[in-house]
Write a sequence for this structure.
């Protein structure tokens, strides 16, 4: 084997080794696991289930806040819905979103522009920056609202109350135990 053939085989083997290490480090992200990881909102399942799952666990609303997750409704084009974290509030009708699997399958986008285009200004319809067109484009998407990263206010619970007596008959020696 001459030197040129040896060098070509070595270069091919080295490049194959490099190609096998890159996919191990790369990660294909879906929007829901990525939103959960970066927001701290511990909801599992498809994005279209997040809004209902958040009820009673997290505060929800229609005002953008940093760290909140914007929940997109399922549609014909997005059958599983979509979730994206608000990375910055620019004004009452514009935010920057960080999310996955939007412009590029499995890809992550940081600080992309989203605009509230709802007639009532309640964030029920938005346009989101889309990489292939390099702008907002003409598509708008219906949303449920924002899921905030703090837990929902809990109603005060007394827990379980047990009443015990000092014997078989009821008398004045009742004791209450509250868990």
């Amino acid at each position: 084997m001459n030197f040129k053939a040896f060098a070509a085989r070595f270069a091919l083997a080295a490049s194959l080794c490099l190609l096998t290490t890159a996919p191990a480090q790369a990660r294909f992200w879906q929007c829901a696991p990525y939103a959960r990881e970066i927001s701290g909102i511990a909801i599992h399942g498809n994005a279209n289930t997040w809004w209902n799952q958040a009820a009673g666990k997290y505060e929800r609303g229609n005002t953008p806040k940093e760290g909140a997750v914007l929940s997109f409704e399922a549609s014909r084009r997005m059958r599983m819905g979509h979730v994206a974290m608000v990375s910055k509030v620019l004004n009452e009708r514009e935010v920057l979103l960080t999310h996955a699997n939007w412009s590029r399958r499995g890809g992550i986008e940081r600080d992309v522009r989203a605009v509230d285009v709802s007639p009532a200004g309640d964030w029920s319809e938005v346009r989101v920056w889309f990489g292939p067109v390099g702008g907002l484009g003409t598509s708008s998407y219906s949303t449920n609202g924002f899921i905030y990263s703090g837990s929902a206010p809990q109603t005060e619970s007394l827990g379980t109350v047990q009443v015990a007596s000092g014997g078989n008959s009821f008398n004045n020696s009742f004791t209450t135990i509250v868990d």
About this structure: Confidence is low (pLDDT under 50) at residues 18-25, 155-179. The longest helix spans residues 3-25. Helices lie at 3-25, 31-39, 50-54. DSSP finds three helices and nine strands in the chain.
